[in-house]
Here is the input.
Amino acid sequence: MAEPKNNPTMKDVAREAGVALGTVSKVVNGIPVGEEYRIKVEKAIKKLGYQLNSYARGLKSGRTMAVAVLMPNLVSPYFASLVNAISRVLSAKKYHLVYFGTDYDPTQEQEYVRMAEQQKVDGIICLSYNPRLVVSDETPLVSIDRYFGAKIPCVASDNYGGGWLAAEKLKENGCRRVAMLRIGSRLPHEPSKRRDGFVMACEALGLECDQKILDDGAPYQEFIDFLHGHYNNGKLDFDGIFCVTDSVAHQIIGTLGEMGLSVPGDVQVIGFDGIRSFGDMELTCSTIIQPVEAIAETCVNLLLSEDKSQLPSLVCLPVKYGFGGTTLK
Amino acid sequence: MAEPKNNPTMKDVAREAGVALGTVSKVVNGIPVGEEYRIKVEKAIKKLGYQLNSYARGLKSGRTMAVAVLMPNLVSPYFASLVNAISRVLSAKKYHLVYFGTDYDPTQEQEYVRMAEQQKVDGIICLSYNPRLVVSDETPLVSIDRYFGAKIPCVASDNYGGGWLAAEKLKENGCRRVAMLRIGSRLPHEPSKRRDGFVMACEALGLECDQKILDDGAPYQEFIDFLHGHYNNGKLDFDGIFCVTDSVAHQIIGTLGEMGLSVPGDVQVIGFDGIRSFGDMELTCSTIIQPVEAIAETCVNLLLSEDKSQLPSLVCLPVKYGFGGTTLK
Here is the structure.
């Protein structure tokens, strides 16, 4: 064991305290010993500046007090805010966060899961882009936004309710004909429900609704073409647009400006996520706000729960509407 | 050792391969053995699904292949982009990144350094807000933006050169009287040189320059008051403003708009950092771009360099100008 020489060992503590090595081990691992022994050991630990080697503890307890978080990157503000919130929750519980950036690469993601398992982390929280992800039964995993079967809890926003809320807000604000613009994975995931909720609410509210759905990687130009296809004599067919993310909304607002249309005067726009400029300033658009703190808290609680026999397979957390200047209110 | 029972051990591998335990240990730790033995061991490892316990490896080698990164948070896009870049560099070198969010709290930061040391990480990369940070000599530390003495390498942008470049660009774009707006720590840090470089360049270029410096935590209103104090008959005294960060620039551009001034028509604005909308879209303003990838790469290389006897105490990396629509070009 390659301990630096000036690092006191458990043996040094035992010698200093005048107790058996086993007694020190018990105190260090929180196993009850006689009060006077405990005090002696704690005094010796303090005096020598003994630091418990977490690796030794990991071997002993089978717990490493570390959780791996796999996220595509930290450049996208939504992913960054998720990792930020998970970090706060883990830290309050004295857990470490080991971060892996998958860059949307399924192979890389699988490799990181394997590495995390090797590292004997106590669990993995993952926003996956690998529909065939293989995880050993021994390492607890909680998934964000992706359903992997009843054994792996999935935590997401109430995406369906969020889509519904967006339609309600556009209707309340006087819209008569709206469009839903979506770009994202070809595979149905929790966020796909944003469209379902929106479309169903339009039906219920009697709001005429068009859709333009792009697969991930399709050129943004297709949205521009779609809008121009619905543009005649300086007027757009739609007076409201629901975009699948704030990031898409940001681009669409730029395109509408280039077409000479004013937002929200001519067209009202609602995004999804709740991204703020520079992380903590104003909302970048009117939006459906994802409950990032509640998602983080739920993920960690499910991951670290002692009784894994009764975990939910899906938890959807309520969203809310945020006014960001791109709707009338 | 609380290994799950269905986890094969090194002993199981030795039995399966028909070799000595020491041979398995050598193969697993990359120490050369006869070719036929290596093949036998690798086959047995594959067959049994043996996973090397990183904790056991950590105890043996004294290396944990983990680096702690301490950052105030991941909500600020600049901090998030730094951690993102550091994660990529570490990952390519097969190191894990353990993330700690300090929330600007010096006590919390010190506690995290202690935890990282206990965890026996191979090093710490820190953007510190604790001028009295105590780090043991045994754990290598590289500091971003903060100088902690000759023994701890500090990596930063060429902040002085960046300030100078901002003044040059405003001059080139026809400005005659400029202002520097700074908000930040009361203590002089590497980023404080942004102002020094700007002021010196204004002097050299014959550009009249005012300054308004706020301490961290001072109300933004003081900037508004400063601007109104230089505003007469619909005209501002300045035709160019250099802001210490893109985030300040974003707020100032909003204030100028409320005052009825157009950017860049009436006033040109340059920020610092190089933040893009939603992480990867357009620059949020004309700006001095920090070399995030180079900073990350330099931090990791210094931290993991074998020979620690000849490390530089400060490395400043070149910045560049990015046009973001808030200057004429």
Summary: The two ends of chain A are 65 Å apart (CA to CA). The longest strand of chain A covers residues 177-184. Residues 104 and 294 of chain A are 24 Å apart (CA to CA). Chain A touches chain B through 53 residues (CB under 8 Å).
